[in-house]
Amino acid sequence: MTAHAFEADTGLHTASTAPAATAVTEATTATQENHVTSGATVWLTGLPSAGKTTIAYELAGRLREEGHRVEVLDGDEIREFISAGLGFSREDRHTNVQRIGFVAELLARNGVLALVPVIAPYTDSRDAVRKRHQQHGTPYVEIHVATPVDVCSVRDVKGLYAKQAAGELKGLTGVDDPYEEPESPDLRIESQNQTVQESAASVYALLSERGLA
């Protein structure tokens, strides 16, 4: 084949496949846009080191791969940027949870899946957040990551249990400060009995069942 013929053949090949490739890309984008239509707040409550944040990020990765708009509202980041100045009294904890609930509902109302791995130790605080969502018709899912305190204290991701045991910390949720377990969560996870991937998959299955994933 001459150089001229090769160039001509190459040019014909490019011209014939480019529109098809563009069409495939546009079709994929359209499919994703049509699939992702609803936001929701997914609140993962549980003791410190229960696995809430780890499960949330595992779930977020899967949802993003499918084209969902996802935000993880990390409790430590909220404390630093939104609730700076609040302490850990019952009143301050309640205020912190309401602030997070407001942001989560706003995101969810605008088509974002807001994953909230935050302790939220008091029933009345969680109920107030749920009520806010109901008032706006925004889907709200409560997940109880029900890891026992003895397991959490061994994991001790942030060293809080060790500090409490050494007398360096007071007011640790589930130890010397109350944690009111949800009586009827949408899903209860015992993370000590399954992998992170399995825990995230169980939340994903619930969201799929409700048309949210």
- The chain-level mean pLDDT equals 88
* Count of alpha and pi helical runs: 8
Poorly predicted residue ranges:
2-18, 20-25, 27-36
Main beta sheet: 5 strands, parallel
Shape: globular
Distance between the termini: 53 Å
Strand order across the largest sheet: 2-3-1-4-5
The secondary-structure element order is HEHEHHEHEHHEH
- Relative helix content: 40-55%
Task: Show the helix and strand layout.
Blueprint: H1 3-35, E1 40-45, H2 52-65, E2 70-72, H3 75-81, H4 90-109, E3 113-117, H5 123-136, E4 140-145, H6 149-155, H7 160-165, E5 187-189, H8 196-209
Parallel strand pairs: 1-3, 1-4, 2-3, 4-5
Helix pairs in contact: 2-8, 4-5
How would you describe this structure to a colleague?
- This protein is an alpha/beta fold.
- It has 8 helices and 5 strands; from the N terminus they run αβαβααβαβααβα.
Give descriptors for this structure.
alpha/beta; 5-stranded parallel sheet
Q: Can I get a quick summary?
A:
The chain is built from eight helices and five strands.
